[in-house]
Amino acid sequence: MSEKVLEIQRATLTLGERTIWSGLDLSLEPGEFLAVIGPNGSGKTSLLKAILGRLEINPGSISVFGGPVAKARSRIGYIPQQRTAEQSAGLRGQDLVALGIDGHVWGPPIRSRKNRERVAKALEQIGAEELAKIPVGLLSGGQQQRLRVAQALVGAPGLLLCDEPFLSLDLKYQQKLIEVIQAHRRQSAMSVVFVTHDVNPILGMVDRILYFTGGKFLLGTPAEVLDSGVLSEVYDTKVEVLREKGRVNVIGLPTEAIHHHEFEGEGL
Amino acid sequence: MNPALGVATGFWDQIFDFSDYGELISLVSNTLLAGLALGLMGGLVGIFVMTRDLAFAVHGISELSFAGAAAALLLGASVVVGSITGSLLAAILFGLLGSKARDRNSIVAVLMPFGLGLGILFLALYEGRAANKFGLLIGQIVAVDGPELGWLILVSALAIAGLLAIWRPLTFATADEEVAAARGVPVTLVSVLFMVILGLATAVSVQIVGALLVLALLVTPAAAALRVTSSPVLAPVLSMLFAVVSVVGGTLLALGGSMPISPYITTVSFLIYLACRLLAAPASRRLKSRLNASSAS
């Protein structure tokens, strides 16, 4: 039997007085791709933080690679929501990426040839070679985001957690990100938890969808979750899911749900 | 003879005088040794003072270190121990209370004058030699004697070793605290450890260049180095080199004259910074325009 990458049991997350979600059961197989969608504030980012042990769940339990997350940290790659670097000097693109290999290890910044080559390869995969020698503080948000992707993947993680990684990437690099994630899944059966507000660009590789909405959640294959009947029941109104040329459009969501989604058009 | 020329010669004689130089050097070999240790440590620590945006905090720590040293002077205790106590207290306080730059700056700004005021009170109460009083503020490196030298070198070595040990996790926590924590870096522990190291470094610097001029060692060399390179290996090496040249070079220049040593150190350090800025300006302009062009495309 293969080791579970992630196992969440009867988990409830409460922030202050508010229950964000409750009774969440989820287990992730090696190589599995889970998309997490839902309106803002429905607990998508909080799920990642709970997996990382930054938010406490109560009751419930979360184990990563069969144990507490503290023992699995070096096997997790994490791409947080995009923001600009605080540091302006003293760190170049390749140095930021190298921290993904050895940033948690005590010692001075002396790196072996093997690790330097891994960094170069990770930069190349996401199309960021030209950023290797440039101080991070000079780079744009999108350029920094490419470096974060390389940093999260350079350590060959068994589990990749990413939070809206497409936000500041243009189409070309969104495509690159998809390619490099797929390559890691093929080579090392990396599992992925991918938080996004638009599932369409990744629909082709999603195994299951976790859909948070108003304290409830749906978990299942895209066909199961993105279903007119299922969504109509969730929202208690007539919702229609249209499939067209590989894209999914959801029609008839209540206005507050659309508002929270910050949809561009009505793609889900 | 032109009287104006005579005055000018006297002026320069006070600042530079290299007669009997060999003899003087043997007298200050202790001082040079202390300067070397201080330069290596200051240059190294300075890199993180710059990248973690702690320059103002360093200034605050040095004033509280001054207060500690003044208290020790009054009580007849060791000035080095007093100075280290003061700066460690300040450094840990700033580290714990002000993890965000804005909070930290206001805490530093509140505590700094209080510390300086205490120091002045202690000095006013002290009835010993006046030179001791002034030295704490503007430096007294020439007064470094045997046992004190041992202390200074030991503390510098400890600070350097400690900093090298936490270098990578500290870099990670500085660059991206959230991801560093996710990857298992104990970010709070690492930043408190750094503040302890910074406190030690400041206390040692206060002994040598004085509380008011500590920034010339803990900030200027690193700022100069980071102007010319962003390499994580070259930047600290250059910064150490600049700091050593400033302290040792400044000391050697000061030997003959009758002036205090600090202005020589601060001037050398400033000139190095100026040179690095000028040197790096064309390259950094080219890089910026290239980046603008590529992100616009």
Quick structural gist:
In chain A, 31% of the residues lie in helices and 24% in strands. Chain A has 8 helices and 11 strands.
What would your notes on this structure say?
The complex is a heterodimer of chains A (268) and B (297). Chain A has 268 residues and is α/β, with parallel strands linked by helices. In chain A, strand 10 and strand 11 (247-251) form a beta hairpin. Residues 259-268 of chain A have low confidence and may be disordered. Helix content of chain A is 31%, strand content 24%. Chain A folds into two domains: 6-225, Rossmann fold (3-Layer(aba) Sandwich); 226-268, no CATH class. Chain A has a six-stranded mixed sheet, with helices on both faces. Chain A is built from eight helices and eleven strands. With 297 residues, chain B is mainly α. Helices cover 82% and strands 0% of the residues of chain B. Chain B is built from 14 helices and no strands. Chain B has helices spanning 3-15, 21-27, 29-51, 55-75, 79-97, 101-125, 130-138, 146-175, 177-182, 187-209, 215-218, 220-228, 234-254, 262-296. In chain B, helix 3 (29-51) runs antiparallel to helix 10 (187-209). The radius of gyration of chain B is 21 Å and the shape is globular. The termini of chain B are far apart. At the A-B interface, helix 2 and helix 4 of A face helix 3, helix 8, helix 9 and helix 14 of B.
